[in-house]
Each structure stands twice: as structure tokens, then as C-alpha cells.
Fold this protein.
Amino acid sequence: MTIESPDTDADAGSRVVSCTLCGRPDGSEPIHGIGARMRRDQVCYSCDWWRTCRRYRTLGDRDDDGRRIVRAGGRHYMTWTPEQGPPPEIGESSAGPGTLYYVLLDDPTATVIESGPYWMMGSIPDSLRDVLPDNARIVREPARGAR
């Protein structure tokens, strides 16, 4: 992967490395303006993204601000209340309509939870399904066209 680092070490220019996690050499997704953490750890965008998602699991399936993490059917979601607002990564404009209805797998009462807005963060790669297992079951899909 070619790493361009205009935010720091601007005079260092580009360098080619293999991701220390997945081993992909240059040719993985292009990254421009990569952050210091990714450059320091020599990881690609995809691996850095899923490391963040793994961190949410260690925080009790919540982000730092208490937004709930839902993993169901191999997909990774984040939900939030109006008071919490969307995560800064997506901003207000991406918090589109839609409601996710789910049951947490460790809830013995099988209570259906109706989310507020949510963000479908991505399909969990097969290689990470053991460390990011489903923690919920979707009981009603969002309306067509909703997020």
C-alpha cells in the first residue's frame, strides 16, 4: 500500500509497506492523508477500521460515548439516541431515517429493542467473525430505502 502522509512528516513523502495485520502489499485500497495511528502501526484502512470495531467489543459493545454496537447476521451496526447524536465519523447528514429492531442474544427475556437512528458500518470479514461474533438477532428489517 502506498502511504501518503501530508498531516505529519510532510517531507517524508510516500512509502510502500505491507499491512502488518493482513499482509496486503501495495495494491490494497489507496489511502491518501492517512492518520498518524495507521502510519505508526503500518496497517491498511480496512484493518484499522476493524481494529476500531474490535475495540468497541472490549468496551462492552459500546463506543466511548455509550452508543450501542449491534452485530447481527455478520453485519456491524451502531445505534444512538437523539441525545447522543451520531458518531463524529459520519456527522449529522449521514444519520438517515430508519429503525433497527433487534434482540440481544444474551437477553434471557428476548426483549425486542427498537433503535433510534443507526449506521450499518459494514459486513464483518470472515477472518474476524470469531472475534466479532453476532451479539444480536435482527427481528425486523428496516423499511426499503431506509438506512
Notes: Residues 61 and 69 are 5 Å apart (CA to CA).
